[in-house]
Amino acid sequence: MRIYLIGMPGSGKSTLAEELSTLLSLPFYDMDTEIEEREKKSIPEIFTEKGEDYFRKVEKEVVQTFLPDNSILATGGGAPCFFDNMDFMLENGETVFVDVHEDVLVERVWQQQGTRPLLAQNEKEEVYNAIKEKRESRLPYYSKAEFTIEAGTKTPSELALEIKEVLKK
Ligand code: S3P
């Protein structure tokens, strides 16, 4: 079984992947970390030096060729929305959309400024607008996921248990 966690930046996919990994005794991987290791550059450096199109090609390569069986992948927020990545994930594993309200996302993203080149606006209100716009345009992809969990107010361990339950069904 492969489990793909998808959702907006700041939705807590990486923390949740780690929690789920302990609960299900499966290894987990973080897609952005995998990309950084391959490219030997940080995500902001890849965007600045090579551009988004290049990043999306490496991202596709990681989504579609890297994940071993019986493991969990925390995907980057944009991954399901480029090429045929979403269809690939639907065909090759269990997809879980970690859905978080914009108000919660903006707080988290704002506190981690500098790590996300597409949300690097100077004012919090601009970050909010960018998140709102991205979330709306990405929902058609995210909502194809087999399972959706409402994640804004629950702890990672509560969410991991919820995912374990839905996967049993
Ligand atoms: C991106 C999200 C990031 C990272 C890159 C692009 C996006 O991952 O892949 O900065 O397009 O939303 P997180 O969702 O882990 O922040």
Automatic annotation (TrEMBL):
Q: What is its EC number?
A: 2.7.1.71
| GO biological process terms, semicolon-separated | amino acid biosynthetic process; aromatic amino acid family biosynthetic process; chorismate biosynthetic process
Protein's cellular compartments: Cytoplasm
Q: According to the record, how does the cofactor bind?
A: Binds 1 Mg(2+) ion per subunit.
Pfam families reported in the protein's UniProt record: SKI
Reactions listed under catalytic activity: shikimate + ATP = 3-phosphoshikimate + ADP + H(+)
Name the UniProt key words of this record, in alphabetical order: Amino-acid biosynthesis, Aromatic amino acid biosynthesis, ATP-binding, Cytoplasm, Kinase, Magnesium, Metal-binding, Nucleotide-binding, Transferase
Q: Please list which residues make up the signal peptide.
A: none
Alphabetical list of SUPFAM superfamilies matching this protein: P-loop containing nucleoside triphosphate hydrolases (SSF52540)
For this UniProt entry, the molecular function terms from Gene Ontology, in alphabetical order, are: ATP binding; magnesium ion binding; shikimate kinase activity
InterPro entries in UniProt: P-loop_NTPase (IPR027417), Shikimate/glucono_kinase (IPR031322), Shikimate_kinase/TSH1 (IPR000623)
**Where does the chain bind substrate?**
D32, R56, G77, R138
A cellular component term, taken from the record's GO annotations: cytosol
Pathway the protein acts in: Metabolic intermediate biosynthesis; chorismate biosynthesis; chorismate from D-erythrose 4-phosphate and phosphoenolpyruvate: step 5/7
Task: Cite the binding residues for Mg(2+).
Answer: S14
HAMAP family the UniProt entry points to: Shikimate_kinase
Subunit details for this protein?
A: Monomer.
Q: What does this protein do?
A: Catalyzes the specific phosphorylation of the 3-hydroxyl group of shikimic acid using ATP as a cosubstrate.
Q: What is this protein identified as?
A: Shikimate kinase
Question: Which organism is this protein's natural source?
Answer: Flammeovirga aprica JL-4
Tell me what gene encodes this.
aroK
